[in-house]
Write a structure and sequence with these properties.
By secondary structure, the protein is an alpha/beta fold. The chain is built from twelve helices and 17 strands. Flavin-adenine dinucleotide binds next to helix 1, strand 2 and helix 12.
Length: 364
């Protein structure tokens, strides 16, 4: 008999398991249908001994000292600031678009003071910004939109930016200075020995039992438990009774190359060419020294594991129907990206899980 069943051993499940086991001393069973812990952040050494991320590149960044302090109980850190280049018109230029991007693409010598008016001359006046296309075209104009965003977004989402909600591109800022860091958060680092080692440390407790390759649909009948944390897909929990929540997926091609370095930065985006979106090279993130290098190429796809909720209003409406059902469930907490049908970064999921713990700790 367990006090808690936790479905999913990703960030949401692992944080809650750790808190319930160590802070409240309760007996917790964590299950995952995959063969490993860590959820999408799972990393492992491949056969050449290079650390890579099975579900695509995961860069940790946050502005929350509370989240850093919490995770630092389970890992040391390797400082790393992510940089991304985009291959545009045959050149590799920084993304987010900054002063160097514009100067390099157009052969200009603009200063940080001049760049805002250069953008303003090109930006289109769109009074009612509704779509992703509107966001970009109204900030940097149509030409940069077509070079950097249109093709990338079509590949990533299988839809034209004019059909996608503005929230999708609201995440990509432009800069008028030379800052070429992909993220500007105050804390940017990788777990020193990898994510999986960090998860192992979080789940290391005599009160926690882990069962892998165990699906909730099978376990729910065979295990006795008091309460539950569910971090799987919310529509699946209710047997898709209102229909399936749509997701965009990815296929990852992992390769190890007989060279020490493949590309100049951690990630290169391909907005104009190829049918993949980007290539990431792990040694940039991890600082690992090795004569070979491992890269991952990402091919967006309509089929496969659920990765990105598709941000359209009809999908949000469908999610709200499931959310209403979830509120009626007794002794079940729905936490994490799949149960809340929202793209969250890792730090946000840790924050969500810690907040859930505080709330339930007050209630019960
Ligand atoms: C390609 C990609 C790149 C990303 N890069 C970054 C990044 O650079 N930085 C960042 O901060 N975030 C990144 N993220 C987001 C990050 O992956 C998530 O924030 C994080 O994984 C969410 O944790 P979670 O616990 O909510 O979900 P997950 O990690 O998905 O964990 C949920 C777990 O539940 C299990 N599960 C589901 N249903 C069942 C069931 N019925 N029975 C048993 N187990 C079940 C799943 O197998 C899974 O392991 C990226 C995401 C993707 C897809």
């Amino acid at each position: 008999m367990y006090n808690w069943l936790i479905v999913g051993a990703g960030f949401a499940g692992a944080v809650l398991a750790e808190r319930l086991a160590n802070e409240r001393g309760e007996r917790v069973l964590v299950i995952d249908r995959r063969a490993h812990i860590g959820g999408n952040a799972y990393d492992e050494l491949n056969e050449d001994g290079i650390l890579y991320h099975k579900y695509g590149p995961h860069l940790f960044h946050t502005n929350s000292q509370q989240i850093v302090d919490y995770l630092s109980r389970f890992t040391e850190w390797h400082p790393y600031e992510h940089r991304v280049l985009a291959e545009v018109d045959g050149k590799l230029v920084p993304i987010p678009i900054n002063l160097d991007t514009v100067n390099s693409l157009y052969g200009l010598n603009l200063t940080p003071e001049e760049l805002p008016s250069w953008f303003a001359e090109r930006a289109e006046n769109i009074p009612d910004i509704r779509t992703s296309e509107d966001v970009v075209v109204s900030t940097v104009g149509r030409e940069l939109y077509e070079k950097f965003f249109r093709g990338y977004t079509r590949k990533q989402w299988g839809m034209d930016p004019s059909q996608l909600d503005k929230s999708v591109t609201a995440r990509i800022p432009t800069r008028t200075n030379r800052d070429d860091r992909y993220f500007t958060d105050t804390f940017q680092a990788m777990p020193k020995y990898g994510y999986t080692k960090m998860f192992e440390a979080m789940l290391e407790s005599p009160n926690i039992e882990i069962r892998l390759e165990a699906d909730f649909r099978d376990v729910r009948r065979s295990v006795e438990f008091g309460r539950m944390i569910y971090t799987g897909p919310i529509d699946e929990y209710f047997d898709h009774c209102y229909g399936k929540l749509p997701y965009r997926s990815l296929r990852f091609k992992h390769e190890t190359l007989e060279t020490a370095q493949h590309q100049p930065v951690g990630t290169v985006n391909y907005p104009q060419t190829n049918d993949f979106t980007r290539i990431s090279e792990y040694k940039h993130f991890t600082g690992q020294q090795h004569p070979k290098t491992t890269i991952t190429t990402e091919y967006p796809s309509a089929e496969g594991d659920p990765y990105y909720p598709i941000p359209r209003s009809e999908n949000a409406d469908l999610f709200r129907r499931y959310e209403a059902r979830a509120r009626e469930e007794k002794n079940v907490w729905f936490v994490g990206r799949l149960a809340t049908y929202k793209y969250y970064n890792m730090d946000q999921i840790v924050g969500q899980a810690l907040a859930t713990f505080r709330k339930l700790n007050e209630q019960i």
